[in-house]
């Protein structure tokens, strides 16, 4: 038996207000102090997800925003890439999928708040970090400094963005609650020291003068980035992999899977006092973008375990980058992806920005979406409680990510309620962790010790267990089950083994699910749904989407009232084929033909391409419309996004570079197979 003890000692320290916040016309307020955010005077734990409007077809924005909201996201963040809007100097484009105003309005319609990352420099794997070529290539302009010419151009850019957001700020009753100034400033380019601080202050003044009077102004807080103290809020990040690394070797174990006090990486310096600000994240890697020389494959468990570790370590906002993938748009004069040829760090695919994230390049919901949704459901119901909870760590806290033997755990304890949550992580990306049997966790409070039921912690497990917590009129002392959400006056739990509940007095009414059922749960309105398909809500109607011809949906109104609905869809038979039309030593070209796609009976049709080689490019009428770098998994392309075109050509290229492949990639360069899969959608 392993005994694991966390001692809770008096830790409550006074919080003090920070000079940020604002009110809406109807009296709603947003504030922040040194510990946490507040909404209408109450502790608020927001969840934010990045979605780049300019990298996704405008006609599908609202559908995606509904999926984002159903996943538990409350704030949508988005870069505004300067080059997308003023590629040609003086010629501005806010049309089509660059229509920022319409995007903000749709966020408002879907009751999503908005955080605009206005730069001017953004990075975001965009050409020149988002700077137009005419700016980036002009040696007379000292970009990212207080050069008057640059500041004047930045002012004009901010004013153009504000024209799109005018009347939609929080103070106007709109959804825009904040802006991020610059990105990775002093960490990736820019100035350090007093000059860097002065530039960040100048950019904030410029943004405010342009009209951005918002509750919150943020700046990159990690890596030694410049933060103007009490003028911008530092936000943190963390990624499960680093495909920007120059080499092609296996990386060391990633420290983002540790549960330990937030103090940055060893030796990392900050330009502000981290104790003066709450621990807010804005760039938790919800996946990763592959590069020419590194091809990591990020699992759903990688993403969810890392988010859990940040929450365990004291984070009071979870912000993901990216939450929804997309596609680099076409430029007038060049492609718009990051490349080493333009002085950036990596070579990226010309078009795809799928990011292996929760919602993919073409709007498909992935398993990571489901894993994170469980965490978001807990935060929706108990986020305020967790916000007021301090992190307590055991004496045997693991500080080395290469330690695959020791358990990683801590507690977040709410002193006022004398209750909290135990966090456990036994997942480390790219490492096999030791399994632990018969683990006895205990939390030593000032007046008693809470003992959890003995539990097995298998390799790869991560979870959250409540203790001493009031659930309605009942007191749950401890359990080996995880709390998912509240459904009316009942509580939903799931467990990886036989559940044990230790109640004091009358037990609460509990709905118990399996782990798989929890992954497939959706809390919409006052009902809990369970389905392997995907659910979203628009205009008060709930829609099911699935790639299966039969899908079950279990609906809980309460533990006493439950129904199972079955939806069937006609199989779609579509003829398809491919043939090689050209080959030399540099690439192979194929012709793909598809016949009779029944557009009226489906929501989408996916072309699934299994190929060997380094990368592939898909063409329609001679123009490249999609591309993919091989990662050992089939490539899925939405035909809906290309008007159900039935004739394509595809080029497949051999591996010619020194590349780090995480999964096995077949030798040669050819198409192995193509297939089609229909996606159905129905109102339930």
What does this structure look like?
With 684 residues, this protein is of the alpha+beta class. Among the domains are: 45-245 and 278-382, Glycosidases (TIM Barrel, Alpha-Beta Barrel); 575-683, Sandwich (Jelly Rolls), CATH 2.60.120.260. The strands form eleven sheets. It has an eight-stranded parallel beta barrel with strand order 6-7-8-9-10-11-12-14, surrounded by four helices. The chain has a five-stranded antiparallel beta sheet with strand order 32-33-44-38-41. Strand 30 and strand 31 form a beta hairpin. Helix 7 (300-312) packs parallel to helix 8 (367-387). It is globular, with a radius of gyration of 25 Å. The mean pLDDT is 97.
Short description:
The protein is an alpha+beta fold and 684 residues long. It is built from nine helices and 44 strands.
């Amino acid at each position: 038996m392993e005994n694991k003890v966390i001692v809770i000692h008096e830790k409550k320290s006074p919080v003090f207000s920070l000079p940020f916040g604002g009110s809406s016309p109807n009296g709603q307020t947003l504030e922040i102090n040194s510990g946490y955010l507040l909404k209408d005077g109450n502790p608020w734990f927001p969840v934010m997800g990045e979605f780049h409007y300019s990298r996704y077809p405008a006609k599908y924005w609202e559908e995606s925003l509904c999926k984002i909201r159903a996943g538990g996201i409350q704030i949508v963040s988005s870069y505004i890439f300067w080059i997308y809007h003023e590629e040609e100097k003086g010629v501005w484009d806010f049309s089509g999928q660059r229509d920022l105003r319409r995007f903000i309005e749709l966020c408002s319609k879907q009751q999503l708040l908005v955080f605009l990352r206005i730069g001017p420099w953004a990075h975001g794997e965009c050409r020149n970090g988002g700077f137009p070529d005419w700016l980036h290539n002009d040696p007379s302009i000292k970009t990212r400094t207080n050069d008057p010419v640059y500041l004047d151009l930045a002012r004009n850019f901010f004013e153009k963005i504000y024209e799109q957001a005018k009347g939609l700020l929080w103070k106007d009753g709109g959804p825009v609650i904040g802006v991020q100034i610059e990105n990775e400033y002093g960490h990736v380019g820019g100035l350090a020291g007093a000059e860097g601080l002065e530039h960040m202050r100048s950019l904030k003044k410029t943004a405010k003068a342009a009209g951005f009077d918002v509750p919150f102004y943020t700046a990159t807080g990690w890596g030694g980035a410049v933060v103007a103290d009490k003028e911008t809020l530092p936000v943190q990040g963390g990624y499960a992999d680093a495909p920007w690394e120059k080499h092609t070797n296996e990386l060391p174990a990633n420290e983002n899977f540790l549960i330990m006090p937030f103090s940055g990486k060893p030796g990392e310096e900050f330009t502000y006092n981290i104790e003066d600000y709450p621990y807010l994240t804005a760039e938790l890697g919800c996946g990763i973008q592959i590069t020419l020389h590194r091809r990591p494959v990020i699992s759903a468990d990688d993403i969810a375990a890392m988010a859990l570790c940040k929450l365990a370590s004291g984070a009071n906002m979870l912000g993901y980058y990216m939450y929804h993938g997309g596609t680099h748009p076409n430029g007038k004069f060049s492609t718009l992806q990051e490349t080493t040829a333009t002085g950036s760090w990596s070579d990226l695919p010309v078009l795809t920005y799928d990011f292996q994230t929760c919602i993919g390049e073409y709007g498909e919901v992935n398993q990571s979406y489901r894993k994170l949704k469980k965490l978001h459901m807990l935060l929706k119901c108990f986020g305020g409680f967790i916000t007021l909870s301090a992190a307590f760590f055991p004496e045997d806290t693991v500080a080395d990510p290469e330690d695959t033997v020791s358990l990683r755990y801590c507690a977040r304890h709410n002193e006022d309620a004398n209750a909290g949550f135990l966090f456990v992580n036994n997942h480390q990306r790219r490492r096999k962790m030791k399994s632990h049997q018969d683990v006895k966790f205990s939390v030593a409070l000032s007046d008693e010790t809470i003992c959890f039921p003995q539990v097995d912690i298998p390799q790869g497990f991560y979870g959250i267990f409540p203790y001493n917590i009031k659930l309605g009129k009942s007191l749950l002392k401890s359990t080996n089950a995880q709390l998912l959400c509240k459904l009316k006056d009942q509580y939903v739990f799931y467990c990886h083994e036989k559940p044990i509940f230790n109640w004091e007095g009358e037990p609460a009414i509990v709905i118990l699910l399996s782990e798989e059922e929890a992954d497939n749960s959706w809390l919409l309105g006052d009902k809990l749904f369970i389905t392997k398909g995907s659910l979203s809500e628009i205009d008060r109607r709930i829609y099911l989407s699935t790639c299966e011809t039969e899908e079950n949906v279990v609906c809980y109104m309460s533990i006493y009232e439950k129904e199972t609905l079955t939806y069937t869809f006609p199989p779609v038979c579509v003829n398809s084929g491919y043939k090689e039309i050209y080959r030399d030593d540099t690439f192979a070209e194929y012709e793909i033909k598809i016949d009779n796609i029944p557009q009226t009976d489906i929501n989408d049709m996916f072309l699934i391409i299994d190929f060997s080689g380094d990368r592939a490019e898909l063409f329609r009428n001679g123009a490249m419309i999609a591309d993919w770098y091989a990662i050992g998994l089939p490539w899925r392309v939405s035909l809906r996004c290309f008007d159900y075109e039935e004739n394509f050509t595809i080029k497949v290229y051999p591996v010619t570079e020194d590349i780090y492949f995480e999964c096995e990639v077949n030798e040669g360069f050819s198409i192995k197979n193509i297939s089609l899969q229909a996606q159905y959608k129905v109102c339930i």
